[in-house]
Amino acid sequence: MKIENIDLLRESLPYIQRFAGKTFVVKFSGKVTEDRENLASLAEELALMHQVGIRVCVIHGGGKQLTELAKKLGVVQTVIEGRRVTDDDTLDLAMMIFRGKINTEILAELRRRGIEAVGLSGIDGGVVKAERRPPREILDKKTGETSTVDFGHVGDVVEIDSRLIHLLLENNYLPVISSLGADDEGKIYNINADTIASEIAVRLEAEKLILLSDVNGIYFDPNDGNTKINRLSVKDAEKLIADGKATGGMIPKLESLISLLNRGVASAHVISGSSRNALLSEVFTDEGTGTMLTRE
């Protein structure tokens, strides 16, 4: 082993000791799971975290794979302001892709690393109690006109019942939860995976919510790699918004993370889901790799 690798082990030791027994919620996007080599690499990183005593819960969506399957089968997709309208056929595909294909592939990679993972959707054990999203007024930015949009079988989270997740974590299992939920009548809904991950992190009183993204953090200018924000407190983030320094899509991202931390999660991280060792670097090194938002 090279000397620099031993130094990395020394650097990671305080973090391993600090986070043993803590809960991390890690959210995968569909793009993260699309490439098999990338997924295998992430499974190794999750396995290492699990083996050193961190309680890991994975949440995943699969929008990219859903879009690709819909295209193959000729199921027309409607996306308005970045939000997918989920009709009957699209919901069927979501159940196949989320709870079936992607969930099983993640489990298989974790099994390969000797991790006892359990695949769920938000419907299992009533983990995600949801309600149908009501029709909303959507502004067409091109025409300036508003219209009422019914998003179909898209749900909003009402409540998280964490008993099943706690049971699994306490018995050294690693839950892998897909982004579906249901209401008390058994109606199934497609739910934003970021939303589910955030609500579960709050309910579990997680030490960290880690969002594996297409980009390696939050940037002042998304087109300039030198403008990445490495670390922010809630107070600093609120000031960026108030001073007008946060613009465009950065504002809702910061607002959602601020809300998350104000509700009890210790820190939130946005990191690349396709960079090897990004997850381990963010958790176990002083420098980190993406953007970290903390309460203080």
CATH topology: Carbamate kinase
Report the principal-axis shape. Answer: globular
Spans of at least 5 consecutive residues with low confidence = none
Total individual domains: 1
Q: Give the integer mean of the pLDDT values.
A: 91
Number of strands: 18
Radius of gyration: 19 Å
Helix content: 40-55%
Write down the CATH class: Alpha Beta
Share of residues in strands: 25-35%
Strand count, sense and closure of the main sheet? 8 strands, mixed
SS-based structural class? alpha/beta
Question: How would you portray this structure in words?
Answer:
The chain is an alpha/beta fold. The protein has one domain: Carbamate kinase (3-Layer(aba) Sandwich), CATH 3.40.1160. 41% of the residues lie in helices and 26% in strands. It is built from ten helices and 18 strands. It has helices at 3-19, 30-34, 36-51, 63-73, 88-112, 163-170, 193-203, 234-242, 250-262, 278-284, and strands at residues 23-28, 55-60, 78-80, 83-85, 117-121, 128-132, 136-139, 146-149, 155-160, 174-178, 180-182, 188-190, 208-213, 218-219, 228-229, 231-233, 267-272, 291-294. Strands 5-10-2-1-13-17-18-16 form an eight-stranded mixed β-sheet, sandwiched between helices. Strand 3 (78-80) and strand 4 (83-85) form a beta hairpin. The protein is globular and about 60 Å long. The model has no long low-confidence stretch (mean pLDDT 91).
